[in-house]
Amino acid sequence: MNVSVIVVTWNGLHVLKECIAALAQQTLVHELIVVDNGSGDGTREWLAEHAPQAKVIALPSNLGFAGGNNVGMRAATGDYLVLLNNDTIAPPDFLEQLVAPLANDRRIGSVAGVLVFAHQPETIASAGIVVSSDGLHRDLWAFQPVVTLPAQPVEIFGASGGAVCYRRAALDDVGLFDERYFNYLEDADLAWRLRLRGWRCVLAPAARVRHIYSATSGQGSPFKQRLLARNRLRVILRCLPFKLLRKHWRSILRYDLLALGYGVARFQPAVISGRLQALGQILQLVQERRALQKRREVSSDSLEHWLAAPVSIREMLDEQRTLTAILGGV
Known about the structure:
By secondary structure, this protein is an alpha/beta fold. It has two domains: about 5-210, Spore Coat Polysaccharide Biosynthesis Protein SpsA, Chain A (Alpha-Beta Complex), CATH 3.90.550.10; about 220-330, no CATH class. The protein is about 45% helix and about 20% strand. It contains twelve helices and 13 strands. The strands form two sheets. Strands 1, 2, 3, 4, 5, 6, 7, 10, 11 and 12 form a ten-stranded mixed β-sheet that branches. Strands 9-8-13 form a three-stranded mixed β-sheet, with no helix packed on it. Helix 6 runs parallel beside helix 7 (about 220-240), helix 7 packs parallel to helix 9 and helix 8 runs antiparallel to helix 9 (about 270-280).
């Protein structure tokens, strides 16, 4: 089994050290590639001294999560490509547990790992991606107890890029991340492209890593708000089949109007500017959409199966309060 692990970092040496140390203890032999997105914190020097086994790719500037991982995946030699956030800590059997489902079905294109909160490891941070009919992509089973995870691998919509294994053949079919996303929802876009081509995704519930939430960009930062707002519309306009758009456009519009109202009320201009940026690219996004949908091999009805009911405003606010409380305990 030929496995490559790609870790992208940007001024994250304070968390990268534990990530690399944990990977050195893995029971599965693997190729390690660290892509440094133009850090200025001594990352490259530290890696040269403490991780000589790693192939380090030093980039002159920050290409984001999407661009950095694409560089790493292009350089990788493995048939299975594992992406792992630099702010994760993996137990020794993580890689073995993560790649195991790929041997059972050649149509499995990706396997999602489970991210738990680093300082509250009994709580799930993400078990993959769930998408609702209003176009919102969220962390599957976020804030649920780890003990509620299924005992065996189960099929889910898509994998979070923070802890995932992709089959190289699947990526050869649909392409890598769209680098224009930079950060956030590039994994959702890829999950849709894999689904459109008939590739399956499963969750490996025993493959768990501790995750330091939003260690790089900061939870709730304007940078993150702008990219999430822009990239949400990019995913919807590029990836949803017309039948689903026609059926759910009211729900999608309702969410965005509520988000815009919230942004105005809370003086968060990034929520607005991100959406305007996406709408300014609408002609290009429609052209890309036509190309993606032309290659679609599954029916809209089968994709409809993966759309969950929208969450209420109260539920979203409750989740935000829960996340604030968890992060406040760091």
